[in-house]
Write a structure and sequence with these properties.
The protein is an alpha/beta fold. It folds into two domains: 4-47 and 302-395, Aspartate Aminotransferase, domain 1; 65-296, Aspartate Aminotransferase, domain 2. Helices cover 43% and strands 14% of the residues. The strands form three sheets. It has a seven-stranded mixed sheet with strand order 2-8-7-6-5-3-4, sandwiched between helices. The radius of gyration is 21 Å and the shape is globular. Bound molecules: pyridoxal-5'-phosphate.
């Protein structure tokens, strides 16, 4: 018999995954080319060629017992040092391998962070709409997720609402930038506003409120003038949860890292805690081959212009037929207002046209739906008529 807690998880299991599986089912009936699956953020842009080359070179050149062996639970020191130097070059910091812990993607990293910092009943704030998996990650360690709304329309954090939600039990605030599901990028003024507020509240309450900056989409930004602020420059008690799942199209390889600053309170305890959490959560260490691959590909990039072209096609069509949504500046999602308040019913209606979309409720924001446009341009082109039919159904 499974646990009571797991029974609840099974019954409320991920809507996104359910949609993804629905897509597989519909593809068998109608043919994959006639199913428009916008449900999951599985990148369609290929990883850079440097990844394949690095895998082959490492397997051919490096000591196999090193490549496939155990290492320090926090990861290979040379890989962590290479990542630290790369961050220093980009953001003018002074990190070393001691500031980096290799993780099993961003999901692994967030779980390691929460395992390290949360006591039961501690509160973790997230801004809605938010990546629904945060519910599970916080609950895993007995924490309570507190949902703070953003300004509707711009989806930027509402600092007054954030301040009102902070209590002596607030342990962390998750900031996901660029954002899933809205595609919004928080600029420097927003990040500074959050950092200043949390500095003041930590002092007032005599507590340490961490920022957990969840950044798998950092490199996916569509305008070179838009800068994603680097949280460690604004707040000493911040963790960056980084991942190569989207930035190098490697989601199945499960590789990422946590970065944290030298100025963080209780630095040594935190560093040791993260390493131990990695081990006792059962990850033991991030995948060894992929760590070594990443160290050789730190300046590699995917072709973001492919996502930008997708965004423009879909955004322009949807807004031309009466849908409302913020124009995404990053990530590869559109968060669109549903044409009826019941977003679950709307997503069900979309399925009639073989359109798979995720209801906003999955992100704590009913009345909307999310489209993951990391799919082929041709598929999006073909889907436009289906969106038009869907809109017409609700305009009647
Ligand atoms: C906001 C956000 N955080 C974390 C993750 C998990 O990423 P990873 O595959 O690197 O674990 C995702 C994946 O979609 C995400 O969108």
């Amino acid at each position: 018999m499974i646990s009571e807690k797991m029974k609840k998880s099974v019954s409320g299991s991920s809507v996104i995954r359910a949609m993804f599986e629905e897509g597989t089912k519909l593809s068998k009936i109608y043919g994959a080319e006639n199913v428009f699956d916008f449900s999951i953020g599985n990148p369609n842009v290929e990883p850079p060629a440097s990844i394949k080359k690095a895998i082959i070179d490492i397997v051919n050149e490096e000591n196999p017992n090193k490549v496939h062996g155990y290492m320090n639970n926090s990861g290979y020191e040379d890989v962590r040092e290479a990542i630290a130097q790369n961050i220093n070059k980009k953001h003018g910091l002074d990190l070393t391998f001691k500031n980096i812990v290799m993780t099993v993607g961003a999901a692994g990293g967030l779980n390691v962070i929460f395992k390290t910092i949360l006591n039961p009943e501690d509160e973790v704030i997230t801004f809605s709409p938010f990546f629904g998996e945060y519910r599970g990650y916080v609950d895993n360690f007995g924490g309570k997720l507190v949902i703070v709304p953003t300004h509707m329309g711009t989806f930027e954090p509402d600092l007054a609402a954030l301040e009102a939600a902070i209590t002596p039990k607030t342990k962390a605030v998750i900031v996901n930038n660029p954002n899933n599901p809205t595609g919004v990028v928080y600029k420097e003024a927003v990040i500074k506003g959050i950092a200043d507020l949390l500095t003041r509240k930590s002092e007032e309450l005599g507590t340490c409120i961490y920022i957990v900056s969840d950044e798998p989409y950092r490199e996916l930004v569509y305008d070179e003038h838009i800068k994603v602020p680097y949280m460690l420059k604004y707040y000493k008690n911040a963790f960056i949860g980084y991942s190569y799942s989207k930035s190098l199209s490697l989601p199945g390889e499960r590789i990422g890292y946590i970065a944290f600053s030298n100025d963080m309170d209780d630095f040594e305890d935190v560093a040791q805690g993260l390493g131990i959490a990695t081990r006792i959560l059962g990850y033991v260490n991030a995948p060894s081959l992929m760590q070594r691959v990443i160290a050789r590909c730190l300046d590699s990039e995917v072709d973001v212009s492919i996502y930008k072209k997708n965004r423009d096609l879909l955004y322009n069509h949807l807004t031309s037929i009466g849908f409302e949504c913020a124009k995404p500046e990053g990530a590869f999602y559109l968060f669109v207002k549903a044409l009826i308040p019941d977003d679950t019913a709307f997503a069900a209606a979309a399925k009639k046209y073989n359109l798979l979309v995720v209801p906003g409720s999955a992100f704590g924001c009913p009345g909307y739906f999310r489209l993951a446009y990391c799919t082929s341009f041709e598929k999006i082109e073909k889907s436009l008529a289906a969106f038009t039919k869907l809109a017409e159904e609700f305009k009647k």
